[in-house]
């Protein structure tokens, strides 16, 4: 069942963001969260978008048994956003797994 596996990926993603010190303790403003730019790149860092937009929206789809996206490409954005970050290999690999899993559905 893709919803169960996706839920597991979201748990792993939260854990990886926390382990990488990319989990935020403060919620961005409503204006920042309302951005319509891809990945809210004009108002949020990529890890904030993952935490405050991607994970909650995917959680809602799972909760409501709605179709999951099948055209998803998180990895290229992660590689671009974190190019000057420390070693985030495990986090990028997890995003690649999520991309591949959802694209195959």
UniProtKB/TrEMBL annotation:
Domain YqcC-like residue range list: 6-100
Record protein name field: YqcC family protein
Source organism phylogeny: Bacteria, Pseudomonadati, Pseudomonadota, Gammaproteobacteria, Alteromonadales
